[in-house]
Amino acid sequence: MNEFLYKASFIAAVAFLFYKVLLQRESFFSANRFYLIGCLVLAFTLPFVRLPALIRHQGYLATVWPQNGTVKDSSTSIPATQLPAKNPFQETASKPPVTASKLIYQDPESVQKNSTEPVARTRYSLSFWLFTLYLFGVAVFSGRLLLQLGIILFRIRQSVDKVKDDNIVIVNTAQQQAPCSFFHYVFIYADEYDFETYHNIIEHEKIHARLGHSFDLLLAEVAAIFLWINPFIWLLKKEIEKNNEYQTDAFMVEKVRVDKQQYQLNLLQIAVPNRPLSITTNYNQSLLKQRIMMMNAKRSTPHAYWKYSFLVPVFFGALLLLNKPASSQEISEKDTQKNTLSSESADRAQKAIPQIKKDLNSSDESSIWNNPDSKTDMSSGYWYSHQENQDYCLEFKGSQGNSHWNMSRCFPKNSFQKTGDKHFELTKDAGTLQLSGDLQAEVSQGKYTFMENKDFKNYLAANTTLPEEKNFVLFLFFADVNRQYVEFLKSQYQTLDGQRLLEVAIHGISLTEYKGYIALFEQYSQKKPSMSEVIEAKIHGVDQQYVQQIEKMGFQGLSLSKIMEAKIHGIDSDYVQRLKEAGITNLSMDQVIEAKIHGINPNSIKELRAFGFGGLTLAKMIELNIHGITAAYIQELQSAGLKNLTLDQTLEAKIHGLDAGSIKEIRALGFANISFEEIRNARIHGVDADFIKGLKESGLPNLTIEKAIEAKIHAIDGAFIQDAKKKGFNFASIDKYISFKIHNQAIESLKE
């Protein structure tokens, strides 16, 4: 059991560190979710997987971890309570048997004199109490989980205010608490929130329920119960909770199409101290700042998927280190089972691919439609409204519950005509929208029907190519595309593409906006834009205000395509100003974009200048950033005694993996005045503290770092010297051992 816990804890640690180093900053939330849950499974399965002998020292970690009350020999393990009176290997073994970690080895003869009881009692007493403590922790955390489940079931059973919304049950609590969900139950104290905030919360928790995040949390909770002694399992559990919130926030912003800024303000509004149960997915998380930063961060490109390619060598290497090689008989017995497991793993991976692809194909923020469907008839459905000043703000959906499409739009109140009791109409060139329900109420809902204007559709057919889209006229209606708009586009283009007109409508480009985009392109690109270029500008949020902001930064004469590129990479006046304040001036827009792409932080430039590094250029900062040179790393080197390094030397140190720990270890072996060049050369040739220590302990106490490097080059280490001494070759200098290794002749003349 102990060995299993050590191995499972090791896998959890490797999984967490790999995630923190390579994956946590990527916005592949579905892929990261699959990875994190898969790591929990691997932690409990890899300890039982055994492979045939593939490398030397395979299963090394299994030999150094404590075994359950056994004393290990180089060839066998003998229970501590059954040590023989005389060791049968005593005269032939080159060294005494190795005991378990933290246990003191006693010579077999002394065990015979003092009997086995004192040793056995000491060993089993410690092991017994440690295992008892472990079981106590399992019991406590299991009880905690059962208590939380009981509280949830009690709240569901006792609540008298439950509302079923499709496959979701909303439990309106009587007491104030933070909103949360558990599988398809959503708990909320409704009296505390306004309509929009309440709506965002419910949509947020619906996503949690739809994605099955409660399963992730339960699995992480169970894993933490069995590995509670390992801090990495708690950290891994926390990352699962974080990733679930990131994934849900991304769905809210990209799929549900909530206003990002308003949604973030709602998060701040709901940041109350009421803590939900840890096994529930909750709207109010303590990681609020990280969620907002992740929402505002640039989305990862598909090229970043290369990082996942390291999963196989990392976990395969961990497997080789964990378990001893399996015998041929064991391999034969497990062939069938392994094939079955491989098939199941492949199936799970295959099922995860569509979800990963779905996350990558997120649409832009300029569209007023969420998942417009070209096959579904959207001419009738349901509407939900609330009033804002002189507007009715409506949301249209295909069904009352979960709808695979929706659209939100605010209309002036005077644009609707009341045609009967709780019946309203809105008429435009494209058709008529009829609403049934009390539209004039503060908050209301009902059904809608849209009737196309046949004359307008015939007009479109005569003036443009109609796309294969059932809801084409409906989209034009909501985007205020009328005859005047179409006539204007006809005057600008020889032929009017219906598909482009559809995209103009879906992205909500008004006639006034379109004219503004034409003026922008003619002014800054000296050409009339195509409809595709106008749509692209709208998607990326390039407008007159942003162009003026670019000009105020000092970038004159840029084409609109270059301005659009700047917008895509998030270039704003604040970033450019901070670069200037950090001393990076006279940059072209291409250079600013390059700095942004490489993640150049103006604050880090100031920190480096504080160490006396002048003449920092953008190219040098990019080079430093690529290699991970930070103020913290420079401080680390200085704490190890390397205080006057140049930037190039600092880069060399980072490239060769020098850190404070390795430098201090070498200095502690008598090399207090070792120079950077000597440390670097030692690192290049793989000379570390253990290697030097081995040489000194073998009889070379006055060894210099240069001679240690020569020894390493010629593959001479402490073991080689000890072996030479056993054969009668006891030299006083490393040069003679090198000669002995190189020539291996005239041995008698070299003897002292």
From TrEMBL:
InterPro entries, A to Z: Beta-lactam_resp_regulator, Peptidase_M56
Keywords on record: Membrane, Transmembrane, Transmembrane helix
Domain of life of the organism encoding this protein: Bacteria
All residue ranges annotated as the Peptidase M56 domain in the record: 189-295
Membrane-crossing residue ranges in chain numbering: 6-22, 34-55, 128-154, 215-236, 304-322
Segments for region (Disordered): 331-350
PANTHER family: POSSIBLE SENSOR-TRANSDUCER PROTEIN BLAR, SLR0241 PROTEIN
Protein name per UniProt: M56 family metallopeptidase
Annotated organism of origin: Dyadobacter flavalbus
